């Protein structure tokens, strides 16, 4: 066995990579998800991959929007005291 393979990081990394491959392989073609909009009347079937992809896109857009509004609000608050402090030292 090569010396680098005895490194715990390599062993744990290999186990994690093999587990991720297993999870992807086991879920490559799962059964569609049934969403009942009305009991016994209207049923919607969606592929699990579409739900995962839609959730990832929604989460990414939501994260970007929250970071944008958060940084915009904090930069607005940070500029007011800085300009007020510089005015008081100039006068």
Quick structural gist:
The protein is an alpha+beta fold and 91 residues long. The protein is built from two helices and two strands, in the order H-E-E-H.
Task: Write up this protein.
The chain has 91 residues and is α+β, with helices and mostly antiparallel strands. It has a domain at 47-91. It is flat. It has helices at 8-26, 48-90; strands at residues 33-38, 42-46. The chain is 68% helix and 12% strand. The longest helix has 43 residues, at 48-90. The chain contains two helices and two strands; from the N terminus they run αββα. A two-stranded antiparallel sheet has the order 1-2.
**Termini separation:** 75 Å
| Main sheet makeup | 2 strands, antiparallel
Number of H/I helices: 2
Mean pLDDT: 79
- Binned, the helix content reads 55-70%
Q: What proportion of the residues form beta strands (DSSP E)?
A: 5-15%
Low-confidence segments, given as residue ranges, are none
Number of strands: 2
Task: Report the C-alpha radius of gyration, rounded.
Answer: 26 Å
Overall body shape: flat
Element-by-element helix/strand order: HEEH
What oligomeric arrangement do these chains adopt?
single chain
Structural class computed from helices and strand pairing: alpha+beta
Order of adjacent strands in the largest pleated sheet: 1-2
